[in-house]
Amino acid sequence: MVLRSEYADVPAVDLPVHDAVLGRAAEYGELPALIDGLDGTTLSHARLDGFTRRIAAALAETGVRKGDVLALHSPNTILYPAVFYGATRAGAVVTTVHPLATAEEFAKQLRDCAARWVVTVSALLDTARKAAEQAGGVREIFVCDSAEGHRSVEEMLASTAPEPEVAIDPGEDLAALPYSSGTTGTPKGVMLTHRSIATNLAQFYSLIPSGPGDRTLAVLPFFHIYGIAALMNAPLRNGSTVVVLPRFDLGQFLAAIEKHRVNALYVAPPIVLALAKHPAVDGHDLSSLEYIVSAAAPLDAELAEACSRRLGLPPVMQAYGMTELSPGTHAVPRGAQNPPAGTVGKLAPNTEMRITGLDDPARDLGPGEKGEILIRGPQVMKGYLGRPDATDAMIDADGWLHTGDVGRVDADGWLFVVDRVKELIKYKGYQVAPADLEAVLLTHERIADAAVIGVVDGDGNEVPKAYVVPQQGAALTDAEVMAYVAERVAPYKKVRRVEFLDAVPRAASGKILRRELRDRERSSAPS
User: Which residue segments constitute the domains of the chain, with CATH numbers given?
Assistant: First the structure.
């Protein structure tokens, strides 16, 4: 059956994304929009809007035209949003690049989207230059700070060129071209229009409103769609303040919350884990915090409860979505009374969902039954750049996007995400969700982090293997780990192999990179 949001529809937002986000900047005026969490440098909403207009003018004077692709290659800085919106105001499409990408990875993205312009920082300039050389077609590389031989964003801000007037069709023209993580396949350019991004902001305001006086901490990367939406677009649209950190360092993170009186956190499960378990948390005043939202990867209910209990906060709220959904479809509403543990929330306005059978995709499932999550709504991407076959495989003829996630919905409409379709372990015909076992492992007091994949045993059966990171200084054996899990799960779910690691490989969003673990397993297997 088709499930529909219980919230009233919101009108489609037919505005360019820079106008949707910064349209009230003059009203917010000198309220702080962005604060550098390390040195305290502050940009007001009005000044940020002015910066974007000068950057747009400078880019247009340089030769940037509507439809050109600009690659934004930088860690989080207070200038990142200004460059993003300046580029879209000039008519460009922004493709965001992982700051740790190798030159080869960067070049592949530049070639795939035919990027003509790059904005980077001096620390990453060598990689950007090599990538541009390998890709070809890049006309100029700019830097956010300063570097000899390259124009800087600071110089752009001094431009006296006229502000460009670009006619943008919000429903057709692309605003952003993030690349899917590649954890389950080749990275692909996700075509997101101005309308899909702007409308998704209005949809989520119904679930998690914010406004002037709210302060959130941007430690997850701006290049990722979660960062773009939750840490850049939404708070700036609503007049909130974003405290910016270049990367996650627990000490800096805790100090920034304390110093800047941050009240809202948007994080991924590894940060929830740190807040729940790390001893450094006790050395900081985090009393300003009012709520935490976790997304980008499944969060275990017990871990969420441990974090909330330790910080004296309401339950950690989860949200759900993906790059191809601009990115959100579900969230636990702010102020929800007693949401069930482990839920990723309720459907956002204007959004429909189906749960379909894993063995019979044509069959719609009812409450409590686990199947693939399908989504339809205005936030669905336009498609994958240059990959019509991949687009058709993802979005069917009726407009349903097949997420590849396994979930169930209860009778009250709360969604629970179980795992990825392709990551389920089939042990002697039984389906075992890695996330279930990871949740059990993380309850062990001597385990700091864990990941599970399916591996083939000597009899040709796929069995669960756990990669475990012990707490610092803790002694732990594989037999102890297996026994601990065996006491808490059905026999077919037992962990049957264990390997200890220094760190679980994760994407910047917090998702476990199971592909790297599978590669590690293959490379260690006897030939």
Answer: 3-409 (3.40.50.12780), 424-524 (3.30.300.30)
